[in-house]
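Page 42, continued from yesterday. The earlier attempt failed because a stray header line got pasted into the input along with the sequence. Redoing it now with the clean sequence only.
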Amino acid sequence: MKENKQINGNDLLALGYPETKLLGIALKANKKRTGLTRVEMLAHYKMVLANAEDYINHKVFGKLATAIIEGVGQPEEEEETIPLKETPVAYSIYGADQIEEGAMKQMEVAVKLPVAVAGALMPDAHQGYGLPIGGVLATENAVIPYGVGVDIGCRMALSIFDIKGIEFYGMEAVLKEQLVKHTKFGAGHGFLGQYKAQHAILDRGEFNLNPFIKNLQDKAWAQLGSSGGGNHFVEWGIVEFAQRDEVLNIDQGTYLALLTHSGSRGMGAMIAGRYTQIAKDLCKLPQEAKNLAYLDLNSEAGQEYWTLMNLAGDYASACHEVIHDKLTKAIGAEVLAKIENHHNFAWKEMYQGKEVIVHRKGATPASKGVMGIIPGSMTAPGFLVRGKGEEEALNSASHGAGRQMSRTQAIKTLKAKDIQAVLEDHGVDLIGAGKDEAPMAYKDIHQVMAAQGDLVDVVAMFTPKIVRMADDGSRED
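This time it went through. C-alpha cells are written below.
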C-alpha cells in the first residue's frame, strides 16, 4: 500500500505548532524533504519544536529552527482586559415593549462598566455602536466616545414665526424655493467659494489645540450651514399651541415654523473616530464591551476629547444658526421663539449629590423646565416639550420616534409607490430622501410619547409640510 506522504496543518497543530505565521514556515519545510518518510518528517518536526538549536544548520529544517529561536509567530500572551462589574448598576427602561432585544443587551453591557453609575433606556431606543441609540449612561470621571456617538452634538432647532399657520397654504411655492436655495445635503457635501458661510465658531482657539483638529478647520468651514445625510432634515411645518405658553410668550393658535435636525458633520465624525481608537488603545475591555472604551477625564486624551467634543457641539449649533438665519431672512419673517436641544453628547451633571458624566446618545436632556423638540417622522407630528426632571431617567427623554426597521430592511422591503401614497395622504411635499427614511421605518411617535409621560410635558405639536433630506439617502460622513 502506498504511503500517504502528505503532511498538513492539522498534523503540525497536533504536534503543538501554533496556528500563527510559524505554521506556514513549518509547512514550507515539508516541500524540501529529500528521502524522508512521512513518519520521519513528523518525528523531526517534533524534535525541532523541542530542540530548535540542534537544527539551526539543517538543510530542511534550518529556517524553521531559526524562526522558532527568534520567536517568529509565537502566540501572543492573551491581552489583559479591564474586567466588567459582576453586578451591573441599575437602569430604568421606558416603553420596554417597543425596544428591540439588541438595544437591551447593549445597555446591559454598558451598566457593567467599571465607571458606570446609573443608566436609562428611552422608548425610541434601538441598537447602535457601543451604547444603544436612546441610551443614557452616567459614569464617574470618564467619557466614552462611542457613548457620545459619531455625530457629536447632533441637535434639533425650531424657529416659530409671526406668520399664522393658515398663511402657509399661500406660501408653499416660495417656502419650497427658498428651502432648496439655502440648504445643502449629503455626506461629504459642503459649500464652495462665495457660498461659504461666516461664523465666529471658525475663529475659536480650540482649532489650535493640535494638528489633527487644525487640519479639519477648512472642512468645517466648507460644511458650515449644511445638513449632511442620513436622517437629517430641514422642514417647514405648522406648530400648534393648544393654549397660551407664558414662558415663550406665545398665544394659543397655529404658526409657521422651521425645524432642523443635523450635527457636526465631517468634523464631528473625524473627532469621534480618532478618540474612539485612542480610547480602545488605552482602555482594553472584554470583546462585548470594546466599543464602550472610555477615557479618564484626568488624562491628556480625555481632556482633549472633552474640549473637541464641546467644539463640535458648538459647531453643530452654528450650522443650525446659519440655516435658520438664511431662511428667516429669505421669507422676511420675525422669530417669536427659537428652541434648540442636542443629543449625542456628554454633560457634567449632579446625580444623587455627586458629579457624574451623563452620556445621552440619541436622548434629549429633560431637566425640570428644560425645553426640547421630539420629532416623529416626515409624516408624523413632532412635539415641543418641557422636561419634568425625572432623576430615574437621568433627566432625559427620547430624541425622536426611533427606528423600527433597519436601513437595510427598509430599502429591501418598502416600495416607492407605497411611500409616495403615505406622503400624499399626509399632505407632505418631500425633497430628496431614500427609502431608508420612509415614515414606515419609524416607530409610532404617539406610542413613544405615551411611554414618557413621566419625563416631559407637551407644550405644542409640530406638523411637517415641506421636508428636505439628502437626495441619495446617504449616511452622514
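Notes: The radius of gyration is 29 Å.
Reminder to self: strip header lines before submitting.
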